[in-house]
Design goal:
Length: about 350
């Protein structure tokens, strides 16, 4: 019997504002999302605010050195508590000066003792599930969510092997890249290399061997593996002194984050923030020891920004325009049973997760 051909998702999954609303209330609120790097919270009381799934949240470091995440809203009359990033001894609401401990509990408020029966011990900021994954802070609005190691089996262990100096790394550069497309269009483009040789000549000739590129699911992680180019063709010295120095690998963590390790054990990241059905912001990060200037990482960041990132913007924005055409009929995905670079099996897995997130079924 001939196996049924797998077709791409209907355009509405990428263009319909109602679909995006379902995702904001569902998959984007019930999955592990990147908040920021823990180096932003080096000292007691350090905090930063951020947006996720239509919510404003903030991470803060307690006196017990625990990093916690809270909804950025006062429990009195809903004023937002903090903006941007900074340091504070306690969290003070700008509206009526209700004051919270770094653990979220209410400490004081003007004239609250005049209220008969007022029990401040019962008032606390609403906390959000938080995990520190190799120095990266991830949060999940679903309080019953399974741990990240369940979602992404073996990813932590493998990353520690590819980047053994994780604990010393801090952001060297994080660039914000607005894209006029649905977040899923950008994520799909990242998650296949079927287009690489034609559209990313620098990446395909100076970093990886496209013919060896493969992507396989590992829980809700898509694991990218490939050989790097011949050492004679590399544009920088990759001899780091670590194992795997001559390999390229990537771990895409569904739905909006990826760790990449370039040859030479150079850590870089992608993370996405969905704005609406037609807009997403991609953040491209590069990391170095203590965040200090690093010639190799800086060179790669510039090369990547001027080639692969710029090339991808044109690709994903063209796709978004095409999805709105009445002439578009979802075509068959190229699924090679042997996988490999010219197969879209990784997109098939992604679209299965995407469909489940919206329709509740495979």
């Amino acid at each position: 019997m001939t196996k049924a051909v797998t077709h791409s998702l209907d355009a509405r999954y990428y263009t319909d504002p109602e679909v995006f609303k379902i995702e904001q209330d569902g998959v984007l609120a019930r999955t592990w999302q990147f908040a920021g790097h823990s180096s932003l919270l080096a000292n007691t009381g350090d905090y930063f605010a951020f947006e996720m799934a239509g919510e404003n949240l903030f991470c803060i470091k307690g006196r017990d050195d625990v990093i916690r995440t809270f909804y950025n809203v006062c429990q009195h009359r809903a004023h937002q508590l903090v903006q941007g990033q900074g340091t504070t001894r306690v969290v003070v609401c700008p509206y009526h000066s209700w004051t919270y401990e770094l653990t979220g509990g209410l400490r004081a408020g003007p004239n609250i003792n005049a209220v008969e029966g007022f029990d401040k011990s019962k008032i606390c900021l609403t906390e959000v599930r938080t995990e520190i994954f190799l120095g990266f802070i991830f949060v999940n609005l679903d309080k019953d969510a399974k741990p990240m190691d369940d979602w992404f089996p073996n990813a932590r262990k493998e990353l520690e092997e590819w980047v053994p100096h994780f604990k010393t790394l801090k952001p060297l550069e994080i660039v914000e890249v607005p894209e006029n497309c649905n977040w899923k269009v950008s994520v799909e483009n990242y998650s296949e290399c079927y287009h690489c040789s034609l559209n990313h000549p620098t990446f395909a000739t100076g970093v990886v061997k496209p013919e060896t590129y493969d992507i396989q699911p590992q829980g809700h992680c898509l694991r990218h593996t490939t050989e790097c180019q011949s050492l004679d063709d590399m544009t920088y010295d990759i001899h780091s002194g670590f194992d795997h120095f001559d390999q390229y690998s990537s771990w895409f963590l569904w739905p909006m984050f990826s760790f990449q390790v370039y040859p030479g054990n150079v850590l870089n990241t992608y993370h996405w923030r969905a704005i609406d059905a037609d807009h997403v912001i991609l953040y491209r990060g590069w990391y170095s020891v203590d965040g200090a200037e690093d010639g190799v990482a800086r060179q790669l960041a510039i090369q990547d920004r001027e080639t692969t990132v710029e090339e991808d913007i044109h690709l994903v924005e063209s796709v978004q325009r095409g999805l709105k055409s009445r002439g578009y009929v979802p075509g068959p995905l190229v699924i090679d049973p042997k996988s490999g670079v010219n197969s879209e099996h990784s997109v098939m897995h992604l679209q299965k997760w995407m469909r489940e997130a919206v329709d509740g079924e495979p």
